Amino acid sequence: MSHQCPRPECSRTVEDDQQFACRGDWYALPKGLRDAIWRTWRSADELGHIAAMAEAIEWYRANPPRYATEPGMAIRRQRPQ
């Protein structure tokens, strides 16, 4: 299974057993948000994990990448599998 990267401007898919977001967008998040996502996932704190992911998505919306002027405009290529 896979899911789309949660950053609105990103078109990459992410394997469910990997990260919350594609590698570039994962490391674009502030460390505190990444830590909260991992901490709540590892501790099986489902409500906390949902809240941490929602906070990260809000951060993405408030901090668009420099290359995008509107959501969905930057289409990234998928890596070959």
Topology:
Layout: E1 2-4, E2 13-15, H1 23-28, H2 31-42, H3 46-62
Antiparallel strand pairs: 1-2
Tell me the domain tally: 1
Q: Count of helices?
A: 3
What class do helices, strands and sheet pairing give?
mainly alpha
Strand order of the largest sheet: 1-2
Largest sheet: 2 strands, antiparallel
Low-pLDDT regions: none
Rounded to the nearest angstrom, the radius of gyration is 13 Å
Terminal-residue CA separation:
14 Å
Average pLDDT reading? 83
What does this structure look like?
The protein is mainly α and 81 residues long. It has one domain (2-62). 43% of the residues lie in helices and 7% in strands. It has three helices and two strands. It has helices at 23-28, 31-42, 46-62, and strands spanning 2-4, 13-15. The chain has a two-stranded antiparallel ribbon. A hairpin with an 8-residue loop joins strand 1 and strand 2 (13-15). Helix 2 (31-42) packs antiparallel against helix 3. The model has no long low-confidence stretch (mean pLDDT 83).
Quick take:
The chain contains three helices and two strands. With 81 residues, the chain is mainly alpha-helical. It has a two-stranded antiparallel sheet.
List keywords for this structure.
81 residues, mainly alpha, 3 helices, 2 strands, 43% helix, globular
